[in-house]
Design brief:
Immunoglobulin-like; 2 helices; 47% strand; mainly beta; 2 domains
């Protein structure tokens, strides 16, 4: 009988020790791995203890920086789940933290918003909206070749004028002329090489010349 009681006590102690030693963890996921500039992304995760009302901080390290900044906060619900919305200005790596516990990192990349307009026939304006000035970067003005089913370059143009919007938004643009057959599908493209290192390649919606 004494042996049985001793075994029960030792077993209970070991179980309690195992429970106490279980590490607290956080998970984190993004609703999208890539977004167009100005669009939000939802970060969500789970606290392993499943405790409610725990404050979670979302820290982001932006492209070109080594310093993390607090971008949002949230509190866990009754099951330990949490979520918050963030709007990255450039490619950003996020972590969720609670006290001294951090989640694994989650990266979200960003595409600049590229727009092409035709004020009058033969005249065009390409605009690139991002979280930093892209003055001096080149955009490609392209037309669509129906027979070959691909886009081909018409002009290569350097972005010049940069107008600051609501911080950190900056609109870089270039106005130009091009003679094309009426009805030709055209677009503006910011290539991977020009968008790097903080942005992805992006193209405007096509319009008719």
């Amino acid at each position: 009988m004494r042996t049985f009681v001793a075994v029960c006590i030792v077993g209970a102690a070991l179980a309690a020790s195992a429970t106490a030693a279980a590490p607290v963890t956080l998970t984190l996921a993004a609703s999208a791995s890539s977004v167009t500039y100005g669009k939000p992304v939802t970060l969500s995760g789970q606290l392993s203890t499943k405790k409610a009302n725990q404050q979670i901080a979302f820290e982001g390290t932006a492209c070109g920086s080594t310093k993390a900044t607090r971008d949002a906060t949230a509190r866990t619900n009754a099951t330990g789940a949490f979520s918050a919305s963030v709007t990255p200005a450039v490619a950003t790596t996020y972590r969720a933290t609670v006290k001294n516990v951090q989640s694994p990192p989650v990266a979200v990349t960003v595409k600049p918003l590229v727009e092409l307009t035709r004020p009058v026939r033969g005249s065009f304006t390409a605009k690139v909206t991002a979280g930093q000035a892209l003055t001096g970067k080149f955009v490609l003005f392209q037309r669509y070749r129906t027979l070959r089913k691909r886009w081909v370059q018409v002009k290569r143009l350097a972005l010049g004028t940069a107008i600051a919007g609501t911080k950190p938004t900056v609109v870089s643009s270039v106005a130009f002329k091009a003679k094309l057959r009426r009805g030709t599908r055209v677009r503006a493209l910011l290539s991977t090489a020009q968008a790097a290192p903080c942005y992805l390649q992006a193209a405007s919606k096509s319009i008719r010349a």
